[in-house]
Write a structure and sequence with these properties.
By secondary structure, the chain is an all-alpha fold. It has eleven helices and no strands. The chain has a domain at 60-204. The chain is 87% helix and 0% strand. The longest helix is centred in the middle third of the chain and has 33 residues, at 88-120. The chain is globular.
């Protein structure tokens, strides 16, 4: 199962590395892709990830739910702090570093969570991969202007893109306790909520409701099949 998880991690890493190309190549389909990916992500969060958190043993539920809040709040507060305490020229540079650090840590944790989910069940690992793939391809592109200068340096781009694989390797060779795993899973849930609302879910008149519904319905059907 290690090999399959590493393949999944490689897919995510390649999508990160090619995110600039993807954003340009599919720019005319951006709203449809955003809406479709948002539908899948919302369905996965409510129908798969949150029920998993609820099924944890009572001793771990408090840790899990607190970590959801921490995941959501940490992404929001870091960005809000920079906007309120920096001039515009400084803000762009600071946001670039914050997004880069947050990006790396977030996908490092995703790599660890992906490993344990796939080890538990190939189906659970694959279901987790699907929204993350959309998130990797689309949400990375939405960071494009802030990340621009940093991602022009190929070695930084490779390092950031490899964060998921590094997380998987940490899980394989070092491992984490059950408490830490559920805390990480909760953090991913909270962070994913924030990213979906802030970066993926189209605002106001943007987006296409048909594709949003299509994403939700297709993911629900997939859950029923598996």
């Amino acid at each position: 199962m290690h090999f399959i998880t590493l393949i999944y991690g490689l897919i995510i890493s390649i999508l990160h590395y090619l995110s600039d190309f993807i954003s340009i190549r599919f720019i005319k389909y951006k709203e449809k892709i955003l809406s479709f990916g948002a539908g899948i992500s919302i369905a996965y969060l409510f129908l798969e990830l949150l029920p998993q958190m609820h099924e944890t043993v009572n001793a771990l539920k408090k840790i899990s739910y607190i970590s959801i809040l921490i995941g959501f709040a940490s992404f929001h507060l870091a960005e809000k702090y920079v906007y309120q305490h920096s001039r515009r020229d400084e803000r762009i540079e600071k946001l670039g570093h914050i997004h880069s650090a947050g990006f790396f840590i977030y996908y490092l944790i995703i790599g660890i969570v992906l490993y344990y989910l796939t080890e538990k069940s190939l189906v659970e690992g694959t279901l987790f991969l699907i929204p993350i793939v959309f998130h990797s391809a689309v949400s990375s592109a939405s960071f494009k202007e802030i990340h621009g200068r940093l991602k022009e340096k190929w070695h930084i781009k490779v390092f950031l893109s490899s964060s998921t694989i590094i997380g998987i390797l940490i899980a394989i060779y070092i491992g984490v306790s059950q408490n830490v795993y559920y805390a990480m899973l909760g953090f991913v849930v909270g962070a994913l909520f924030y990213v979906i609302i802030k970066d993926i879910l189209p605002e106001q008149k943007e987006g296409d409701p048909k594709y949003f519904l299509a994403g939700m319905v297709l993911f629900i059907l997939l859950l029923l099949v598996v």
